[in-house]
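The instructor's notes for this session suggest beginning with a concrete chain rather than abstract definitions. Hand out the sequence below and ask the class to guess, before any prediction is shown, which regions might be ordered.
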Amino acid sequence: METIGYQYQLTLRSFLDYGLIYAPNQVIKYRDELQFTYLEHYERVKRLSNARLIWE
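After discussion, reveal the predicted structure:
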């Protein structure tokens, strides 16, 4: 039986790693409002993942 689809999991981690490894300086644009390279996007995600949430 032939497999259909990707041979790996489509996760946020795989998206970040792929862009960072193969095209770190390629620009990602979102609705002409935001613009980042994969390297900048990776750094922003890492900073956000290390942020603390304070619940009151």
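Then share the key points. The longest strand covers residues 27-30. Residues 14 and 37 are 16 Å apart (CA to CA).
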